[in-house]
Every structure is written in C-alpha cells, then in structure tokens.
Amino acid sequence: MGVSLGTTIWKRKYPRVNLEMRGDFSLLLQDMEKERVPTQIKTLGGGGMMFISPMPLSLGTPLQIRLFHWANVVKLNSKVVWSEPVVENDSTEFRNGVQFDQISNEAMIQIRNIMLTWQKKSQET
Asked: How far is it, in rounded angstroms, from Cα 76 to Cα 123?
C-alpha cells in the first residue's frame, strides 16, 4: 500500500500525481495507428499513467497516448499493464494502467512540468 501525500502517490519507482487532464489514445497495431479515442487522464508519473476508456484493453496492448496540457501535446507510446471496470455509478467505462515505452527526454521533462503544475494547484486549494 502506498502513502498518499496530497495528490502525489509515492508507491512506485516514479511518484504519480492525481489529476484531471484531457487526452486521447489509439491502438498501435502492426505499426499503424487506429482511430483516436478521447480519454480522461487520472494519474500521471514518470513511468506510466492511469486513464479512463470506454472499452477494456488487453494486457500488453500497445498504445499511443496524447496528453493535452495547455497549448502542448505530449505523445507517449505505452503498453497496457492492467485494466478494470469502473464500478461507481453504474459506469460502463474502464480504468487502464499503462507503462511508458522508450520515453524521450523531452517527453519526460514535459511530464515533470505537468506533475509540478498539478502539485502546485493542489497546494493552493
């Protein structure tokens, strides 16, 4: 069980921040992108993230995820490491955890900036 300090979760190698961020994802199958699906990002860290999808995703499914942070778009390739149904409010959605694949230094800097922004926001409220 991890320790939660404000909105930062310290239970993994990379800390994660709870947030509400728009994004989208597409399946990467045979090096081809499929249709983009809008999503809501719920946690973000240096090694992965959790987001909501309208369908279950199989373990190991390769994805390209885009995060929309102000005018910036961060593109991340990842793979699904877990998927579970959202059980609140008779939802038909799924929570999905992904691990980033070969993240660039630029993308890591952008992720850290997003995390710092959300940490500051949570401290102001």
From this structure: 27
Structure tokens belonging to residue 75: 């593109």
DSSP summary character for residue 90: G
Is the distance from CB of 60 to CB of 79 less than 8 angstroms?
A: yes
Does the pTM of the predicted model rise above 0.85? no
The reported pLDDT for the residue numbered 50 is 97
Which of 85, 108, 94 minimizes the C-alpha distance to 14? 108
Answer for the pair 17, 26: CB distance below 8 angstroms, yes or no: no
> Is the separation of the CB atoms in 92 and 75 below 8 Å?
no
Asked if 39 and 51 touch (Cβ cutoff 8 Å), the reply is: yes
Query: Could you tell me the CA-to-CA distances from 112 to 7, 75, 77, 81, 99 in Å, in that order?
Result: 14, 14, 17, 22, 16
Q: Taking a C-beta distance cutoff of 8 angstroms, is the pair 84, 97 a contact? A: no
Give tens-digit pLDDT for 65-105. Answer: 999 988 889 999 999 999 999 988 788 899 999 999 988 99
Identify the residue whose tokens are 């949570």: 122
